């Protein structure tokens, strides 16, 4: 299509006055306008407006293929917005995008921070534990949050993790007439009237960040003693040589410490453990390090579960290593698209 039917439109808190002419023209021509209630109200969508379904689904937009449709998103539609989902489902000729400055850009502009040196995280739909990989003295980050209550919860989490001295800037309704910015230390923050949409800028202080190399102390893990010890784990990860995006089979995973270290390097892991108390520890560790989205935990015996696992690039056998498992692993190597690195260990 030379004239795309779908417009992905960024919108700020200033509503229509902040939109360029091209966005205004697309809105005027739209038959249907999708967005959240706040966005629809900001542009005066009226009877043309349709709210997103819960849970989020792009199917209602795709069902209108060929009609004039506008999808509203905060700021840049491709930064934690619907743009990526829709663009992945459609040819590039069927859509166009008109972004505006989003929360992260506006926050950096208000604070005078270099955006390229600032970590930007969407914690409106992710746990606070995702911060653990980033926190270090002097680190700066901007985080979008779900609502006003999440601001106090984040301050409490940071304080509990030893980062109570961190400076926080609470950035409310940036770019619109309700804009407000307030500053406090995490340990002393007490705000009950926070406006949405809201983000928090963090300048970390007071705590100890995680080491950047494998071999985390055993004390950081939930475990029953069945854990690959720190020096051995560091050597193991060096031998496995994780690369971003690669998949590890962690068989007889115990506490899941190898899976955690692998995922911290940017990979994904399938952790297999037959004892329910240990799989509970693996899940707890994955969550505590903010890595639950990268570590899949399987209850059962490795030999029985192998056919259900996605092909890996590396294997670590931490427990339950026997002749039957030894025989099964080479048999599956032919299914892998790249050579695997194998570092077995007996418990």
How would you briefly describe this protein structure?
This protein is of the alpha/beta class. It is built from eleven helices and 15 strands.
Any overview of this molecule?
The protein is an alpha/beta fold. It has three domains: 95 residues, 3-Layer(aba) Sandwich (Cobalt-precorrin-4 Transmethylase, domain 1), CATH 3.40.1010.10; 100 residues, Methyltransferase, Cobalt-precorrin-4 Transmethylase, Domain 2, CATH 3.30.950; 125 residues, 3-Layer(aba) Sandwich (Rossmann fold). Helices cover 28% and strands 21% of the residues. The protein is built from eleven helices and 15 strands. The chain has a five-stranded parallel sheet, with helices on one face. Strands 6-7-10-8-9 form a five-stranded mixed sheet. Strand 12, helix 9 and strand 13 form a beta-alpha-beta unit. 37% of the residues are buried. The C terminus is likely disordered. One of its GO terms (biological process) is methylation.
């Amino acid at each position: 299509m030379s004239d795309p039917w779908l417009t992905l439109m960024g919108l700020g808190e200033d509503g229509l006055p902040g939109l360029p002419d091209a966005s205004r023209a697309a809105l005027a021509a739209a038959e249907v306008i999708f967005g959240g209630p706040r966005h629809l109200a900001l542009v005066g969508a009226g009877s043309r407006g349709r709210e997103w379904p819960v849970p989020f689904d792009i199917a209602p937009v795709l069902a209108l293929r060929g009609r004039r449709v506008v999808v509203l998103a905060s700021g840049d539609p491709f930064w934690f917005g619907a743009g990526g989902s829709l663009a992945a489902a459609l040819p590039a000729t069927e859509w166009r995008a008109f972004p505006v400055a989003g929360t992260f850009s506006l926050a950096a502009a208000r604070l005078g921070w270099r955006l390229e040196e600032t970590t930007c995280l969407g914690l409106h739909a992710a746990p606070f534990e995702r911060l653990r990989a980033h926190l270090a003295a002097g680190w700066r980050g901007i985080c979008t949050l779900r609502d006003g209550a999440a601001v106090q919860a984040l301050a409490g989490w940071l304080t509990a993790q030893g980062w109570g001295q961190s400076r926080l800037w609470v950035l409310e309704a940036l770019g619109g007439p309700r804009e407000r910015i307030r500053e406090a230390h995490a340990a002393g923050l007490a705000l009950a009237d926070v406006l949405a949409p809201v983000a928090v800028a963090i300048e970390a202080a007071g705590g100890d960040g995680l080491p950047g190399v494998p071999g985390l102390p055993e004390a950081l893990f939930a475990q029953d003693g069945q854990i690959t010890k720190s020096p051995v784990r560091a050597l193991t990860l060096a031998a496995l040589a994780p690369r971003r995006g690669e998949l590890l089979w962690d068989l007889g995973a115990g506490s899941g410490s190898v899976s955690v270290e692998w995922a911290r390097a940017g990979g994904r892991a399938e952790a297999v453990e037959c004892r329910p108390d240990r799989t509970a520890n693996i899940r707890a560790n994955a969550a505590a390090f903010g890595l639950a989205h990268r570590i899949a935990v399987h209850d059962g015996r490795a030999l029985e579960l192998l056919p259900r696992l996605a092909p890996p690039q590396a294997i670590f056998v931490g427990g339950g290593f026997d002749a039957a498992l030894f025989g099964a692993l080479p048999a599956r190597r032919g299914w892998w698209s790249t050579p695997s690195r194998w570092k077995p260990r007996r418990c």
